[in-house]
Design brief:
3-stranded antiparallel β-sheet, 30% helix, 20% strand, globular
């Protein structure tokens, strides 16, 4: 894990496995190309500050980016952003709260509470490396046509949403993360499972 993040001054390099200085001990469970960067919205941090009666400074939730004016959880899967002048990223999947997050926050039943609220933020894949600095502008470059958001995936896809993602992927519009592909395979397996046979 690399959940203990703090704000930094100056430029930070962004590469396919994350930000310079942000290293995960096990990329099997944390990080990797589809989870290179984690973005969380300031509006959601403000919500939790009110709920918990404490400050939620940038990095407390383990995020690399604290965004103002963009709702990371409502971003569409495959949506692409430009950050600053160089970096381009792609929205891949929601954050799933874990025990490390529970320990960091020290709030009873925190992971359940965080999940039930659904303000989970978005993981990003790096499409174009470069450097970013606090205060950089984030611009939405493209938004796919399927209409499925990070929140939709976290809450659980229905058959129509799953089909829309598959169609968008087949058309070359988006590249799905391993996490979402696993969800789609599970849904497909359940859909084709034969009914149980009962012998009289």
């Amino acid at each position: 894990t690399a959940i203990d993040k703090r704000p930094v001054a100056g430029a930070v390099q962004v590469h396919p496995l994350g930000l310079t200085g942000d290293l995960q001990a096990s990329r099997r469970h944390h990080g990797g190309e589809s989870k290179a960067v984690y973005a969380y919205s300031q509006a959601d941090a403000d919500f939790w500050a009110r709920e918990l009666g404490r400050d939620i400074p940038p990095g407390l939730f383990g995020e690399n980016l604290r965004l103002a004016g963009i709702d990371a959880t409502e971003a569409l899967i495959g949506e692409r952003w430009r950050i600053g002048t160089d970096v381009e990223v792609e929205v891949t999947c929601p954050r799933t709260p874990c025990r490390n997050f529970q320990r960091r926050m020290g709030v009873p039943n925190w992971t359940r509470r965080f999940a039930e609220e659904g303000r989970v933020g978005a993981y990003l894949r790096v499409r174009r490396r470069g450097s970013i600095t606090a205060g950089d502008t984030v611009e939405v470059l493209t938004a796919p046509s399927h209409g499925v958001s990070v929140r939709d995936v976290f809450r659980g896809l229905d058959a129509e949403q799953a089909a829309a993602l598959q169609a968008s992927r087949s058309a070359g519009e988006i590249t799905l993360s391993p996490e979402i592909l696993k969800v789609l395979r599970t849904m497909s397996a359940k859909a084709v499972r034969p009914p149980a046979q009962h012998l009289g």
